[in-house]
Fold:
Amino acid sequence: MSATEAPPERTEFDRDVVIVGGGPAGCSTGVFTARYGLDTVVFDRGRSSIQRCAFLENYLGFPAGIDVETLYDLMHDHAEKAGCEVVVDLVESVEPLDAGIGDEADEAEIGGEAGGDHRGFVVETQEGRTVTARRVVAATRYDGEYMRGLDDEDAMFETHEHDGEVREHFDKTYADEDGTTPVGGLYVATPYETGYQASMAAGRGARVGITVVEDARRERGVPEALADHYDWMRRERDLTEEWADRDRWREYIHDRLPDDHGLDEERLVEMREREIDRRFETYLTDDEVGQRTRRGHKRLLEHVDDDAILAAARRIENERSASEASD
Structure:
């Protein structure tokens, strides 16, 4: 099993994760959830707030700036490469899933300490799609009206008076810093409280993506002491002799588990060995790093203007010819 995969969640849902919004926040969330192995779909209505930007000059990694169309294509390409399905459609409603779906509905309650006990969601779209999902991530800046049926007390909306009229809008403080909400399984990735820059939205999405993954790990029985998730790749040569030994990892996991972890021996061994496999597979040989580097560069070229590539190729060829002539 690869480091970016995990055993599938229960099959009575169409999707593990539905993300509403395909901008920086939504795509960033999806990259983390899909890389872990959660079946993720991103619904993008095609009107992300970033598309109102004329030209983006402060997104890290693009020294001369990046046009929004290219960045948007790169984000969607990345999400799809990670394993997301990106669907151009508008989500019109998200409703609690009625209890009783599947034979084990009573065991399908989701949400951690911050959430309630919803058993999943039904997502309806403008084009007539109906999708059931274990978790939903709101990553849009529009009014959040599609979530109105999820909170019995309507606490996610607040009212204010403007020019003599009483108006209602989504409460920007409804979600916690990690994206969790009072509704179990519902997360908010829109960076209301962190700012409105595209890079902030991507960072918020990453934070929420990690939260979703860690909640999924807890639900699968991973004890709290081991639920933290890290998605990064390291060089194999940095794996010291001590930590290259599976027994050392077994000892490490044993020492971190509380006495009341609640796992029977078979489940404990299964979980422990899978965790060790996942950690080992985050280490890459130098050859693997080289292969991924070349593959990454080629993927970037797919988003660069062909004329720019040809011009750069001619310049490189001329420089090489001049260098060889001088030798």
About this structure: The chain has three domains: 15-219, 224-284, 286-326. Residues 286-326 form one domain. The CA atoms of residues 57 and 65 lie 4 Å apart.
